[in-house]
Amino acid sequence: MDIKHLTYFIEVAKQKNFTKASHILHISQPALSKMIKNLEAELDVTLIDRTYKKMELTDAGKVVYEKGVKVVQFMADLDQSLYDVINLKKGTIKIGLPPIIGSLFFPGIMADFRKKYPDVVIKIMEFGAKKVEDSIEEGLIDIGVVPLPVKDDIFDQIPFLKEGMSVIVHESHPLSKRDFIHLKEVSHENFILFNEDFALHDLIIQACIKEGFYPEIVLESSQWDFLVEMVAVNIGITILPNSISEKIDLPAIKIVPLKPASLLWELSVIMKKNRYVPYVGKAFIEEIKNWKQGLPS
C-alpha cells in the first residue's frame, strides 16, 4: 500500500468532499479521485459511498480511516525519529570504561559531547578492561576504551593514548634518588598491583617476565590511590602510568620513570568487528579523536 494514497484518503474522509481535499493536498480533483479508486482496487473494498450527494464512508472506509490515521502518524513519527537519530538530536550510546580511564580522560570529553548533543543519552558502564572487552563481544555495549593488547580478530581499534610508566617508591627507598629505573632493577621488590580484573595487572607481570623475573605480589587493589597509600607506608612499590603518577601528591612518595620505555600504557577505542555502530557512537568516536588532537605531542 502506498502511504501517499492512504494519506490522501484520510484527507478526503476528513473533508467529506473531494474538491476541498484536492485544494488542501494541492492536486487536481480527477487525480485525487483516481488515487482513491486505486486504493479501493488494491484493498478490494469500497471505501466511499458515492450514491448520495453528501459523501459517506462505508463500513470498510471507516475501518481504513481509523487504522490509517494511526499508520500515517506512525510513519511521520518514524521519519522524525530517524531524522533525530541521523542528525544526533536523539540517541543512546553505551560506553565501557575502566574506572581509571574514565576518571582520567573522560570528564572533559563527556562535557564537550554533551554541549554538542544535549539530548543524547550516554550510559557509562564502569568495568575492568577484561569485562569491557567481554561486554562488547557479547553486544551489551557499543564501544569501549581499554589498554592494549586486545584480540585483533574480534575488535576494531582506534588508537587513543600511548605513554610511559613510572615506578612509585617510598622516599627512603635506595632508588628514590634516581632519574630513571630499568624494570629489571626492581626484580627483588615487593609489588603492589591492581587486581586481576585490570589489564595493568597482566601487563606489568608480562613485562617483568620478559625481563627474566616474576614479581612478588604482596597486595592487590582496584584503587590506584590505595596502591599509592600502601607505598607511602613502605609496604612495597607499584608501577603506574604517567597520567596517574602526575596526580600523586604525597610527601613520602617518589616517582621515578621507567627507562627505556619497555613498559608502555597504550589505550585504544575498541568496537566489535562487523557490528553496526550507531550514528551517536560514530559522533562520540569523533569527539575522542578531537580530544586526542588537543593533547601535547
Automatic annotation (TrEMBL):
**Which SUPFAM superfamilies does the entry mention?**
Periplasmic binding protein-like II, Winged helix' DNA-binding domain
GO terms under cellular component? cytosol
Instruction: Give the family from UniProt.
Output: Belongs to the LysR transcriptional regulatory family.
Fetch the InterPro entries from UniProt.
HTH-type_LysR_regulators, LysR_HTH_N, LysR_subst-bd, WH-like_DNA-bd_sf, WH_DNA-bd_sf
The entry's keywords: DNA-binding, Transcription, Transcription regulation
Identify a single GO molecular function assigned to this protein: DNA-binding transcription factor activity
Q: Which residues cross the membrane?
A: none
**Protein name stated in the entry:** LysR family transcriptional regulator
Matching Pfam families, A to Z? HTH_1, LysR_substrate
Residue intervals of the HTH lysR-type domain: 1-58
